[in-house]
């Protein structure tokens, strides 16, 4: 299973853990599984599944990224989406 980079990173705030820049499907999945403030809800489950599917090559990275952004919005941790240099 190879990591799949996002077209641009997603900036989130994880409370006492600070800010995190998530740049790939693997980073998103790791963050969802180990650092997410609320591990329930449809957005969380969808993002987890879609990031895993992107890593397996069954889902586009763009769709996995969108699912991750929606889960971050729902959890109240989305700070922004930095523009690439």
TrEMBL record:
Pfam families: DUF982. This is DUF982 domain-containing protein. It comes from Phyllobacterium endophyticum. The lineage of its organism: Bacteria, Pseudomonadati, Pseudomonadota, Alphaproteobacteria, Hyphomicrobiales.
């Amino acid at each position: 299973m190879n990591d799949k980079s996002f077209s641009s990173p997603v900036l989130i705030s994880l409370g006492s853990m600070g800010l995190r820049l998530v740049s790939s499907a693997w980073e998103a999945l790791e963050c969802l599984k180990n650092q997410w403030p609320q591990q329930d809800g449809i957005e969380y489950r969808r993002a987890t599944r879609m990031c895993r599917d992107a890593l397996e090559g069954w889902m586009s990275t763009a769709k996995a990224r969108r699912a991750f952004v929606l889960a971050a919005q729902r959890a109240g941790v989305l700070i922004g989406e930095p523009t690439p240099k």
